[in-house]
DNA sequence: CACACAAACGGACTATAGTCCTTTTAGGTC
DNA sequence: GACCTAAAAGGACTATAGTCCGTTTGTGTG
């Protein structure tokens, strides 16, 4: 008996999951994330609407699924990649490296991340990945600012990295100044 | 000829504006901001939907209109009230005072501000008030951190004061720690 | 007061997210 | 291979934001 086995995904479910992800990726690339409705994704994938929502929950969930791989790459690099992003460097250096790397990731998929964060209120804080970034930043902040209340401070700092906000900042000042501002804030 | 006169508001328009604001205030108070639809506001006010949207643009616009007075009070206090919120104190003190005062305002009307900022994407940065807070913070930052690139830095700092974000931070850590985190970030 | 016309009104209409519930099907069991 | 069950499918349905346009009304003018 395989007690902990999470019961394999049914064949039709797997097939449809792939069809949906492929269709969504294609439509988003061709028309832009905001201009594609969930109806359109379902139609393009050749599945019913119920199927789409059942599997991905909402539009944010679909975006998260599409970002999954890229997100994992960054998480891997932080956990076990080379310093200064990975372990081994001083906290301040790692924090600066994280900000740069996160901004690379974010600016590479701005529309998608934005949808994942804003599709429903509070969506950002419910995503599993957010907790990862938050933990990482809190630990580093404890290193760069000994004695500070790192957990809420990490939240406040990550606010500056919200897609909604970075979109506005980059539009107004360009990437270089936006990056510098976040780094300045992070390093005190 | 009164060239610059902005042509007085028509009597029926004024009457309806007041009816809508009163109805919205009542419904929001009774049922909570999120649970009230624009249809319900229109019905309660006894006006058509078209009238509601024509005048306030969207849900965010309605929220802004309701917040208008409180917002003005804070702006007045900053421009000409007593120090340290008003002029006369050192930049660092004024910045701390601004953070506290803004959080007072925000926490007093969290749902409404949140709606004004999140009803449509990018709404926050289109509100006139945002430009005011941004200018104020940028000027103070130039005082506390000579030589910094104050404009984007002010944006990054204000990100931590976004309603969406403060809601999450207060829920998780409570007001006191949330306040302290923002103040820490602001004062470097 | 009658008239003209810009402004405002209002509600039917569209678009879209998300839900519900009935029908279908995969895959294990005898 | 027939049968059973839980999972999955799918599309009609609901709720709501926001648009459009034909109709009404306030107000300044002769």
Summary of the model, kept short:
With 188 residues, chain A is mostly helical. Chain A is built from ten helices and no strands.
Give the quaternary arrangement of the chains: homodimer
Return the CATH class of the largest domain in chain A: Mainly Alpha
The fraction of residues in strands of chain A falls at under 5%
**Structural class assignment of chain A:** mainly alpha
* Biggest sheet record of chain A: none
CA-based gyration radius of chain A? 19 Å
Question: Roughly what is the average pLDDT of chain A, rounded to an integer?
Answer: 93
Apparent shape of chain A: elongated
Count the E strands of chain A. Answer: 0
The tally of helices of chain A reads 10
**Uncertain regions of chain A: pLDDT < 50 for 5+ in a row?**
none
Most extensive interface: pair and counts? A-B, 34 and 34 residues
In the CATH scheme, what's the topology name of the largest domain in chain A? Tetracycline Repressor, domain 2
Keywords (chains A, B): DNA-binding
GO molecular function (chains A, B): DNA-binding transcription factor activity; transcription cis-regulatory region binding
Organism (chains A, B): Streptosporangium carneum
Domain HTH tetR-type (chains A, B): 14-74
Write the layout of secondary structure elements.
Two copies of one chain form a homodimer.
Chain A: H1 11-31, H2 38-45, H3 49-56, H4 59-80, H5 91-108, H6 110-118, H7 123-126, H8 128-144, H9 150-159, H10 163-187
Helix pairs in contact in A: 1-2, 4-5, 4-6, 5-8, 5-10, 8-9
Chain A binds a DNA duplex (30 and 30 nucleotides) through residues 7, 10-13, 16, 37-39, 42, 47-55, 58-59, 119-120.
């Amino acid at each position: 008996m395989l007690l902990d086995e999470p019961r394999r995904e049914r064949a039709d479910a797997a097939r449809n999951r792939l069809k949906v992800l492929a269709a969504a990726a294609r439509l988003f690339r061709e028309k832009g994330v905001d201009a594609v409705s969930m109806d359109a994704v379902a139609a393009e994938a050749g599945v019913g609407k119920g199927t789409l929502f059942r599997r991905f929950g909402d539009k944010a969930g679909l975006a998260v699924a599409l970002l999954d791989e890229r997100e994992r790459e960054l998480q891997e690099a932080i956990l076990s990649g080379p310093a200064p992003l990975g372990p081994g460097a001083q906290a301040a250096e790692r924090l600066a490296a994280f900000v740069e790397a996160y901004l690379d990731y974010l600016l590479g998929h701005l529309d998608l991340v934005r949808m994942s964060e804003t599709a429903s209120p509070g969506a950002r804080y419910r995503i599993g990945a957010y907790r990862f970034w938050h933990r990482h930043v809190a630990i580093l902040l404890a290193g760069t600012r000994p004695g500070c209340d790192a957990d809420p401070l990490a939240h406040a700092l990550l606010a500056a990295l919200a897609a909604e906000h970075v979109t506005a900042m980059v539009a107004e000042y360009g990437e270089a100044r936006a990056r510098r501002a976040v780094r300045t804030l992070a390093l005190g």
